[in-house]
Each structure stands twice: as C-alpha cells, then as structure tokens.
Amino acid sequence: MQDLPLRKINARLKTGILILLVMLLFSCSGKKKQGEVPELFVFAAASLSDVISEIADSFKVDKNVEIKLNVAASGTLARQIEQGAGADVFLSADENWKNYLAEKKLVRETAVFAANDLVLIAPPGDTTKVSDVVSLLKETGKKIAIGDPGYVPAGKYAMQVVDFYHLDLSSKLFQTVDVRSALMMVEMGEAGYGIVYKTDAIQSAKVNAVCAFPEEAHQPISYFRVLISGKPLAKDFYDYLYSPKAKAILAKYQFKAD
C-alpha cells in the first residue's frame, strides 16, 4: 500500500482525544439505581449512524431499555473498548477490528449481520461523464476524500481500490476521521470526489454516486455484530440485529441483509 501525505484534519490526534473523552463519559455512567430503566451501550461504526438509531428505537418498543449510542470509526471504537469503555455491543464495519478485540479476549460472540458497496461520489453540480473511472481518478486535479485507512474501514477499502488499479493518488487524497466526514467534505465542496459507502451516498441529497467499484477491487464489505458484555439485554439486542424487523430496517437504508 502506498504511503500517504499528512492531509488528514489531524485525524490521529482527534482520535486519541475522542478515546479519552468516551472513556470518561462511560466510566462516569455509574450503577443503575433501583427503579431506573436499564441502559445498553452500543458502539456503532459511523456508516451505521442512521440505521442503528432506527433499529435501537424499534428494539425499545419491545424492551423497557434506554440505548446509548456511541458512533465513530470502527478502529476508534475498538480502541475505546480495549481501554475499558463500557460497551455492551460493538458494530464494526471491518473484520480486522472485530478480530483485534477477539485477540484481546473481549468478544463473547460475533457474526455478520449486513453488507455494503463502495462508490465514488461527486457534488450534484459535477457533470462529468464516467466511462473509465481509472482515467478519471488519474487525470482529475481535484481532491479525493477518504477515511483515514488506519482507523476507518471505508478508507481501508478505498486504498484497496487504489492498489487494485495501480494508481498513484498520494497528492490528491484528503483523509478524514470517519466515512461520514469524507462524505461531508464533498458535500461542502472541500473535495471534488469521495470514496464512501453506497448507503452513505444514498442518504445525502448533496452528492451523486458517480459509479460503484466492482467487488473484486476490494475485500467484501461486511458488518459484524460483536457481543461484548454479559448482560441478558445485550444478548437480546445482539440477536435482534438479525431479526426480521432489523433486516427490514437495514434494507430500507440499502444495506444488504440476508
């Protein structure tokens, strides 16, 4: 994988600060007092932010529980869990970060529950006709926003695409702290193109999906549900993610769910 320049919005520094803040937040949550509604802490990849909110709301209809969501890059969340943040369930957009926690003996149970595609996006005003995405990426003088490959699975998959096509885009890549930030850079006109998940592109009215990258250009994009705590409600939510109700919500947001 090619070396990348330091065009990242201080991604690594922000990740470290975020980990410390989340550690403080979840360590201060305290024990549940008698009569209080039980709480579940769900750590979810940034690309799941919309769909997981709706799934959580649906789950609360059936269970008397308060769900606290912590949404960030999968790598950032995994580091937080490793350092003691009180996650009950972790939803990762990358198998490596799931395996990272498994190696630390922090995983009770895990399984795939959704899948996604990777697309190239541009602002709505971009009228470029794409017949050859490789030539477009080679010849464009515009910045291309991707998530930081060190922490952001979408960024890792983007770099796999770059390597697959043997491209040298080191002077054009604009790295961000998560995939939603890469999307935002294109929405704001700070980058001419971005490589993000199909589901993110569909949810934004401020970008167009220029083309989808073929599956052979990157590893399969699978989302893993990971049971961290031993709470019965955590196992209930973990199982609920593969229920017909949850699958219907995932499909609504264009995720692939078996």
Walkthrough of the structure:
This protein is 39% helix and 22% strand. The protein is of the alpha/beta class and 258 residues long. The protein has 2 domains: 11-27 and 37-116 and 222-252, Periplasmic binding protein-like II (D-Maltodextrin-Binding Protein, domain 2, 3-Layer(aba) Sandwich), CATH 3.40.190.10; 118-217, Periplasmic binding protein-like II (D-Maltodextrin-Binding Protein, domain 2, 3-Layer(aba) Sandwich). A 5-stranded mixed sheet has the order 2-1-3-10-4, with helices on both faces. A 5-stranded mixed sheet has the order 7-6-8-5-9, sandwiched between helices. Helix 6 (153-164) links the parallel strand 6 (144-147) and strand 7 (173-176). Helix 2 runs antiparallel to helix 10 (244-252). The two termini are 32 Å apart.
Describe the secondary-structure layout.
Layout: H1 11-27, E1 39-45, H2 49-62, E2 66-72, H3 74-82, E3 89-92, H4 95-103, E4 109-116, E5 118-122, H5 133-139, E6 144-147, H6 153-164, E7 173-176, H7 179-187, E8 193-197, H8 198-203, E9 208-212, E10 221-227, H9 232-240, H10 244-252
Parallel strand pairs: 1-2, 1-3, 6-7, 6-8
Antiparallel strand pairs: 3-10, 4-10, 5-8, 5-9
Helix pairs in contact: 1-3, 2-10, 3-4
Number of domains: 2
Order of helices and strands: HEHEHEHEEHEHEHEHEEHH
Architecture (CATH level 2) name of the largest domain: 3-Layer(aba) Sandwich
Report the biggest beta sheet as strand number plus sense, adding barrel if it closes: 5 strands, mixed
Strand content: 15-25%
Terminal Cα span: 32 Å
Q: What portion of residues is helical?
A: 25-40%
C-alpha-based Rg, rounded: 19 Å
Q: So what's the overall shape?
A: elongated
Biggest sheet: strand arrangement: 2-1-3-10-4
In the CATH scheme, the class of the largest domain would be: Alpha Beta
On the 0 to 100 scale, the average pLDDT is 89
SS-derived structural category: alpha/beta
Quaternary state of the chains:
single chain
In CATH terms, the superfamily of the largest domain is: Periplasmic binding protein-like II
How many helices in DSSP terms? 10
Number of E-type strands: 10
Give the low-pLDDT segments: none
What name is given to the CATH topology of the largest domain?
Answer: D-Maltodextrin-Binding Protein, domain 2
